TrEMBL record:
PANTHER family associated with the record: EG:BACN32G11.4 PROTEIN, ENOYL-COA HYDRATASE
Signal peptide: none
GO terms, molecular function: catalytic activity
Protein name: Enoyl-CoA hydratase/carnithine racemase
Cited Pfam families: ECH_1 (PF00378)
CDD domains for the chain: crotonase-like
């Protein structure tokens, strides 16, 4: 796996996003690595819980906009297919996390932005350091962050989802804790690993069958509508990438300028 490190200690495994030079941005290779790592851990009976973490100062900065720019350089008839493929694979990754039979703990030590925020929301629990922030600013780049919005609505309600998704403002770890997104108050950066390990151990004390059934009840039965929304959100996000405003927003971000809508 090129951008993912898998570590196992006893019954606990950790998947570490290893793309610090790009702040953990999700390119197709990283998405494929995450699928591969989850599949490997799914098949490992000794692993009872999994922590999703990241190397470097950011948890995950979201979609890799340089990849989106590369797709925009393709012939027009090929672009839409590539947009749909990219967002379909990311939607499938979130669904794989939601359907994963073992407890998943997101250890967020820095910014979790857009699709990176969605990754953390797809886990069962989130622990965060005092340096963590959470944001969904796709609209500021002319894009549609429908997958993140759907997951945030499921976890915390549509009011918070609307405020974060439309205004594009980041919330602090303290804010995230106040609205119930974290399983404990934020910790010092050097305590993040131990906090994630604590919750991973605590959430894996029940029988594997009962844990899997409980996760299925929460994420598939109660969240049945949300799973349907993920596929629709992926299509909406792909379609939005074809617009002129998306091109303007992506170029402005990469050139460090302000878009003009």
């Amino acid at each position: 796996m090129q951008h993912l490190e898998l570590k196992t200690e006893g019954s606990l495994a950790t998947l570490v996003i290893d793309r610090p030079e790009k702040h953990g941005a999700l390119n197709p290779r990283l998405i494929a690595d995450l699928h591969e790592g989850l599949d490997e851990l799914h098949q490992e009976p000794r692993v009872r819980a999994v922590v999703l973490a990241s190397a470097g100062p950011s948890f995950c900065s979201g979609v890799d906009l340089s990849v989106l720019q590369e797709i925009r350089s393709l012939p027009e008839q090929e672009q839409l297919q590539q947009w749909f493929e990219y967002w379909r694979r990311f939607s499938e990754l979130c669904e794989t996390l939601l359907r994963f039979p073992k407890p998943l703990i997101a250890a967020v030590g820095g910014p979790a932005m857009g699709a990176g925020f969605a990754l953390s929301l797809s886990c069962d629990m989130i622990v965060a350091s005092e340096e963590a922030t959470f944001s969904a600013g796709a609209v500021r780049h002319g894009l549609v962050g429908g997958i993140t919005s759907a997951l945030l609505s499921f976890r915390a309600g549509t009011s918070l989802s609307a405020r974060i998704s439309l205004a594009g403002h980041a919330i602090t770890a303290d804010d995230a804790n106040r609205v119930g997104l974290l399983c404990q108050p934020p910790v010092a950066p050097d305590q993040l690993d131990s906090a994630a390990t604590y919750w991973a151990n605590e959430s894996s004390q029940g029988s594997p069958q009962a844990i899997q059934a409980t996760k299925r009840l929460i994420n598939e039965s109660i969240g049945e509508t949300m799973l349907t929304q993920l596929a629709a959100a992926a299509a909406d996000s792909a379609t939005a990438c074809t617009t002129e405003s998306a091109g303007e927003g992506i170029d402005a971000f990469l050139n460090k300028t302000n878009p003009t809508w």
